[in-house]
Amino acid sequence: MTSIEHNLQQVRERIAAAAARCGRAPEEITLLAVSKTKPVSAVEEAIAAGQRAFGENYVQEGVEKVTTLAAHPELQWHFIGPLQSNKSRQVAEHFDWCHTVDRQRIAQRLNDQRPTHLPPLNVLIQVNISDENSKSGIMLEALPTLAQEISALPQLRLRGLMAIPAPEQDYDRQLAVCLQMAAAFRALQQNYPDVDTLSLGMSDDMEAAIAAGSTMVRIGTAVFGARDYARTSQQ
Ligand SMILES: *Cc1c(COP(=O)(O)O)cnc(C)c1O
User: Fold this and answer.
1) Which CATH number do you get for residue 158?
2) How far is the CA of 129 from the centre of ligand 1 (A)?
3) For 125-162, how does the pLDDT look when each residue is reduced to its tens digit (9 = 90+)?
4) Is the CB of residue 80 below 6 angstroms from any atom belonging to ligand 1?
5) What sequence ranges are listed for the domain Alanine racemase N-terminal (predicted)?
6) Among residues 224, 214, 227, 222, which one has the least CA distance to residue 28?
7) Which of 37, 89, 111, 181 could bridge to 227 as Cys pair (CB 3.0-4.6 Å)?
């Protein structure tokens, strides 16, 4: 067994255990393997171990992997990094999902640039739930308006919400923030029947995220090992 295969098995067990503790079925939670800074060979190992959904943060690096692995139509590619306007076309043309939509202008660009032969791009609205230092994500008060704007765009499909809570070690405080996101998610579902995805939870807070109702955890380090940022020149 390779170490990535072993890690994936352990992460799947962590997800199943966290789900069991709160009476949820493990199939309700998708594992998104975050492969940023990792080589194609690492993604191939994960594919061999049954992983299908991958998350990338940097547009150019992500597009390289998507195109290199085009022989695997079963893969789902998620863009989860900050998105600049001048890179939106690459995301619209190569990815299946974008988790970081936080303004109308970028939603409109993704819509206009999404090739019509592809299905609509699945989008999540990024909410700034607890991180005062982050410039990414909208405040909860702005959510209804942006959701309405996105739902009017035919080449986008609003699937839910995403958040990157401020780092926090205490479980109860992690849970409190995750529960705020879960409440916003349920409220959104009342108005938009396609909404089924709450992208919440990373290596250090996935248990609290799952307890709150996350449907997608984004796990990098626990699957692929520590990242070496010196190897990438981007961003
Ligand atoms: C890097 C990253 C992750 C994965 O983080 P780990 O701590 O390595 O699990 C998840 N979500 C986003 C948005 C990221 O940028």
Assistant:
1) 3.20.20.10
2) 16
3) 999 999 888 889 999 999 999 999 999 999 999 999 99
4) yes
5) 7-227
6) 214
7) 37
